[in-house]
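Sample A.
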Amino acid sequence: MTTTIEPGRKAQLNKSVRPTARFMLAHPAHWLAQGFGSGLSPIMPGTSGTLFAWLAYAVLSVRWPAVFTPLTWLIIIGVGFVVGVWACQRTGRDLGAPDHGSMVWDEIIAFWLVLVLLTPADLATQCWAFAWFRFFDMVKPPPIAYFDRRFKGGFGVMWDDIVAAFYTLLVFAFWRSM
C-alpha cells in the first residue's frame, strides 16, 4: 500500500475499515469471523459474540439433541477452529486490523468448547461459565496475554480464546473438586 503524505498530516500506515453489515456480507470469511452479525454490536462485541454462542448452543442442542451431541459439538469446534483461523486472517486483513473487535468467531468457538465440556450444567453454572470466560478473555492473565502478543494473524486471534476457555474450565475443575 502506498501512502501519500500531505503537508501537515501524518501518514496512515494501517487504513482501518469500519465493519458494517455490507462489509460482513461481502465475503464468507467476514460473515463467519464476525459471528453472523453478532460482532457488529456497537457495545462489547466480544460479549455479544459469546452470548450468540450460548444461545446457538442451547437452541441447537435442545431442538436437535440427536444431531448436536457432545461428539458432534467437538467436531464442529475442531473444524470451526481451523476454518476460523482462515476467516479471522482474511477478515483482519480486509479490516486493516489483525484482531479487530468485531471478529468474534474466536469467542464463539471457545465458549462452545466450555459449554460442551461443562454439559450437563444448570443455568446458574452456565451463567458463571459465561462470566468467567468473559473475565479471562478481557483481562488476559498470563499466559493468555503472552499468546495474544506472540501469535499473530488468524491463529493468534483464535488461540488466546481457547486458552481463556481452558482457564474457565480450570476454575470449574477446582470448584467441583472441593
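Sample B.
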Amino acid sequence: MEQHAVEQHGKAEPAGLDVVVTTMASDSHTWNLVFLQLLLEELGHRVTNLGACVPDELLVGECRRIAPDLIVLSSVNGHGFHDGLRVIAALRARPELARTPTVIGGKLGIAGTGTPARQHRLLAAGFDGVFEEGGSVLDFQAFVGSLPAGSRALPTGAGPLPAGSGVLL
C-alpha cells in the first residue's frame, strides 16, 4: 500500500484562549475554581488553575511565564474587593501584563452583593470586567467570547462590560 506524505502550509493557531484561573492570597476556596475551569474548558479554552491562597508574587510570576489571553480572579471569602485592588495594581505594573484582559468576580465584599461604586472602582483600577455573585454566567461567557485568541490584549475599541454585569466567580 502506497503512503503519501501530507504537507502542511501556513500556521494553524489553536482555537480558544489560554486562561489563568486563580483566587487571591486570602481565599482558600477551590470549588469556584473547579467550576470556572470546567466552564472555560467546555467553551474550548485551555486553563491553568493556580489554585487557592495564591500569593501576589506567585500570581504575577506565573502570569508572566504563561502569558495568558485572560486572567480570571475569583473570590468567595468576601475580601475580593480589597485583594483585587492590590492584585490588579501588581499585574498592571508589569508591562507584559498591562493589557492582558483581567476580570474579577464572586463574593467581593462581606456586606452582600456589589454596589455600582465598588464595581466602578474595580474597573477604574484596571479590571476589564467585574462579575459579582448572583449575576449571569451568560454575561461572563459573552465577555470571554469577545476576546480574540492569541492577542494577549483586548481588541481595539473593546471596553469593560457595563457595571452591574455579573456572575459568581
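B remarks: Confidence is low (pLDDT under 50) at residues 5-12, 156-168. The longest strand covers residues 46-51.
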